[in-house]
Amino acid sequence: MTVTITAFERSPDGGQGLARDTRVRWALEEVGQPYDVRLVSFQAMKEPAHLALHPFGQIPTFEEDGLALFETGAIVLHLAQSRAGLLPDDAKARARAITWIFAALNTVEPPILELFTAKILESDMPWTKERMPLVQDRIRDRMKQLAARLGDADWLDGDFSAGDLMMVSVILRLRSSGILNEYPNLAAYVARGEARAAYKRAFAAQAAINTRA
Amino acid sequence: MTVTITAFERSPDGGQGLARDTRVRWALEEVGQPYDVRLVSFQAMKEPAHLALHPFGQIPTFEEDGLALFETGAIVLHLAQSRAGLLPDDAKARARAITWIFAALNTVEPPILELFTAKILESDMPWTKERMPLVQDRIRDRMKQLAARLGDADWLDGDFSAGDLMMVSVILRLRSSGILNEYPNLAAYVARGEARAAYKRAFAAQAAINTRA
Which percentage of chain A shows pLDDT scores above 70? Predict the structure, then answer.
């Protein structure tokens, strides 16, 4: 059965892998699921055909055999629950791994989204320079707690899981701010994620689209 | 098997049901699962015993038969997948319902969290009054899209599901700002959620703790 996802026709990050389709591509690669990509322009994302797939007018979406999903977390969870490779077999360990998907998206990512809001949507506002340290310190609060939990383990709970895929994807966006490298064990954790063959294939696939002439 | 959750010893909202244990209580009530509550103080939440359960030092947590989970979304999903009552039987419909859990937590809630950050953590900052309309308009962008998708349906995708439980829980926090009532179909949607017997029991249980002398 063919899987089709959507991605930016041209990602605002120019191919750095920060757009959310990279997270879904990574999950698809980890479970060995081939996929097609339909590119959508910023204009098309706000039109009825795309809004029928994604009510918030974003990417990525996921289509397979009459099932249409949106939300990166839901797509990654669906792939992890319907294929082998991203969750442990033991039921309790599976539930714990899924907890980390939610922790990445609902506890760690919100303050990081605030940073991007400040940098992109409020970049020319008079308060942004003075406000930025507050925004960054709220991210550091979370990173400190995450670093304490990870300790010197390779992954958050046993083997690599969909929870790690999501957490690495969320915190790697902090590299350019310098905040990721303030936490050496988290920087190493991200590097372990990026070193996985599946991540490399996902990254290369989105880069090929976003750096084409 | 006994289920034990944690909640604030005294919620900052004084029993309005906005603390996240209400979401888990609601799910427990919907699936008919009795539960115990262990109350934790703000000080205890930052101590090693609680951090072992919840690495970010928050509530709620969930414990049952040697399984310990944190993150409201993960707990609600675990309850929905392990008991009847919060997800449809059809596999595709289940995946779509789960999508709405993630949409609530990762697309709709982040701009709402920004509002609370502005109101609580930055209330006395010189920029907050001027910045507030921007924060509120980013919420309206999402509410408008959500209202368009819901239309005149009772719930987001067929029968009431864990996705509706989470979306109602996320947007009811906007009532005090006035923004919820700008979208009559969403205000009615929240009211339908609050009218459910399970919600009423959950609300009453947290109110009893937070309004005790």
Answer: 100
ipTM higher than 0.90?
Answer: yes
CA-CA distance, B28 to A155, in Å (whole number)? Answer: 31
CATH node for A3-85+198-210 = 3.40.30.10
pTM of the model: 0.97
- Residue spans of the domains in chain B: they are 3-85+198-210, 91-196
Task: For residue B199, give the nearest of B158, B167, B159, B169 by alpha carbon.
Answer: B169
How distant is the Cα of B192 from the closest Cα of chain A, in angstroms? 21
Mutation pick from A50, A83, A107, A132 vs chain B, by most beta carbons of B within 10 Å, is A107
Residue ranges of B 71-90 with Cβ closer than 8 A to chain A: 71-74, 77-78
Minimum-distance CB partner of A131 among B69, B106, B127: B127
For residue A95, the chain B residues in CB contact (below 8 A) are: 67, 69, 74, 78
Instruction: Tell whether the model's pLDDT for residue B147 goes beyond 80.
Output: yes
Q: Kindly report, residue by residue over B67-98, the tens digit of the pLDDT.
A: 999 999 999 999 999 999 999 999 999 999 99
**A123-165, pLDDT tens digit by residue?**
999 999 999 999 999 999 999 999 999 999 999 999 999 999 9
| CATH classification (class only), B91-196 | mainly alpha
Q: Which of B73, B92, B125 sits opposite A66 (nearest CB)?
A: B92
